[in-house]
Amino acid sequence: MENEVRIVVKWSGKEYEICNLSESDSVGTLKNAIHRETGVRPERQKLLNLKLKGKTPEDGCQLSTLKLKQGFKVMMMGSLEEDIADASGPPEDIPDVVNDLDIEDEEIALESREVYLAKIERRIKEYKINMLNEPRPGKKLLVLDVDYTLYDHRSSAETGYELMRPFLHEFLISAYQDYDIVIWSATSMKWIEEKMKLLGVSTHSDYKIAFYLDNLAMISIVTPKYGIVQVKPLGVIWGKFDQYSSRNTIMFDDIRRNFLMNPGNGLKIRPFRQAHLNRDKDRELLKLAKYLKDIVHEEDFNSLDHKHWEKYRPRKKEQHTVKKESGDLGDNRDSSSAS
Domains (ranges, CATH) in the chain? Predict the structure, then answer.
């Protein structure tokens, strides 16, 4: 009589026991059993620690060949079909984007208006942040938008890899060495969580996100050109965390109006659109990874002009250190772990 194989699958924070398998069953049979328990289709499953001679086994490989111990725990990544459909389509609550060409310098005065400062104070008192990872002493702060900054949310795609901006994980690994990382999207928290899971950001082992901010942390302001718009005031973060300030914070967003309250801390990233056409050409995150390395030794970010970030050159005494730390990200394509 064949030996029964019992496997435990860890996925999305839960464990699922897979029974009624024998050694003569294949990896494909195992995936079908996982599908029945979790709802994740076999082609969506990425079984991270299931290896044969250091490589991922083919679906036809017999379980006996893998020599698994009873109760062996398999780490799985994969998304449900409804989650993929939700995260691949445009969100319902994303605000209309006003013409961003261009927010004029006259609107910089908005950052000091008392009515807006009062709104920020209310957000500091009332908005609750769910900490994912605690701030690290001595680290600067990087605040990242999501849509068109980290991925193309309007492209039709079946996997997070197809939606994801090239070199996303390499960029985040590099940035995490010097910066605490915050994700701030003008959508709902559920939407952010699903996207980060889809892209493999929330579960990556080589970097950690400090926390997410959603549309409820934003405030509305009145601009001379565009009337009422929603913006992301960094003062909400600075009011909650003493170690962050305008001196050590930088925000990437593809829409300049989002950092109207803090124009000196915002860097307008080139939007990543038409992913299916531009995946092989987009190198924005590689360049920005280098820029973050170059400026990390600046004592005060207020002295920088992020509008001309591509022309920035580190001071000579820092160039050797920066070059040593930055490494050559350009030699590797994006090693996405999203599925």
Answer: 4-78 (3.10.20.90), 83-331 (3.40.50.1000)
